[in-house]
Amino acid sequence: MLTGSATWDYRDARHERFGRTHFRRYGDGLVSSLGLGTYLGEPTDDVDEAYREAIGLALESGCNVVDTAINYRCQRSERVVGHAVAESDVGREAVLVATKGGFLPFEGERPDDPGRFVREEYVEPGLVDRDDLVMGSHCIAPDFLDDQLDRSRANLETDPDLYYVHNPETQLRERSREEVYDRLEEAFVRLEERASDGDLGGYGVATWEAFRVPQDHDAYLSLPEVVDRARAAADRARTGGTHFRAIQLPFNVSMADAFTVEAHETPDGEKSALEFAADAGLAVFTSASIAQGTLADRLPEAVAARLGGETPAGRAINFARSAPGVTASLVGMQSIEHVRENLEACEEDPMGAAAFDEVFE
Question: How far apart are CA 349 and CA 358, in angstroms?
Fold first, then answer.
């Protein structure tokens, strides 16, 4: 798993190429402010090979954050991440590998009858209780996450540095908010135990809506409450301190809610997700940094004028990297051309805090 000393060595060998704060603190080490995501693409051998080449180049060139999930591309993304990291000349201890569990994954390809697959693979063997299954596809029960973590470790051929509970707001489709918090705490107890056993470096929550929407939104979850539940889980697991390390949420020019929506109550007043995470010492990894490609062609002129970068995609990446409290911005990169272009953007300095604030004035 990741070590501080290895990441400092990684930074020392590559930092001169990049702009200010490309490498940022994570624990006692450093990670790149650009991360490689593996969500997009069909579950095919050709896409596997493209990702393998892209990950290899990214690791060599100054991107040491790789993000995936067991359900991405029917488990193929995890497997190609594992192969690429193992094949790289960059040592495993210099790379932050993150994955997620919560959505029931298919095996290699999408089955003709997904419902039958779920029933035969998960429900009938007892891996998932029907009462724990939401929307026929999502589960955060501790025993299920145990199974998924072990599958992810096998797919990745390594223990993940970060293991996220994936989109827990999905549970709100069929459960009360309080019940979801209770279920999250039970999941966290199990992840605390697995972290204490050395099977993962830390854990967190990866969301799409939960932390960036107003309190009256159906998908809202309180980040302070989630953090409190993680602390309670650590006490119950007697791990001597929580292993809750990070959150993941969307952030880009057109989805800036994590900075602008003050929905999280604290003794000092309501705060945005980014502000609360910074105060709580949590790392923040942003997804959809170029809105899955929709910002690759154009940005609002008023924003683009303030950002360095040769292309709209590069400027969009630099906007996401400039948000206060962001550790790394994730971008899907299926080709070596995308890796080169996106890392070139990181040669520019991010916006300063004052300039970033002015965008929203």
Answer: 17
The kind and range of the H/E element at 166 are strand 162-166
DSSP letters for 89-140: SS-GGG-EEEEEE-BPP-SSS--S-HHHHHIIIIITTTSS-GGG-BTTTB--
Which residues contact residue 143 at a Cβ distance below 8 angstroms, ignoring those fewer than 6 apart? Answer: 127, 190
Domain definitions of the chain by residue range: 4-359
pLDDT for 297: 57
From residue 104, alpha-carbon distances to 142, 173, 282 in Å are 14, 16, 27
DSSP 75: G
Asked if residue 302 has pLDDT above 70, the reply is: no
Q: Does domain 4-359 have CATH number 3.40.980.10?
A: no
Render pLDDT for 91-139 as a digit per residue (tens, 0 to 9): 999 999 999 999 999 999 999 999 999 999 999 999 999 999 999 999 9
Copy the structure tokens of residue 103. Answer: 């959505």
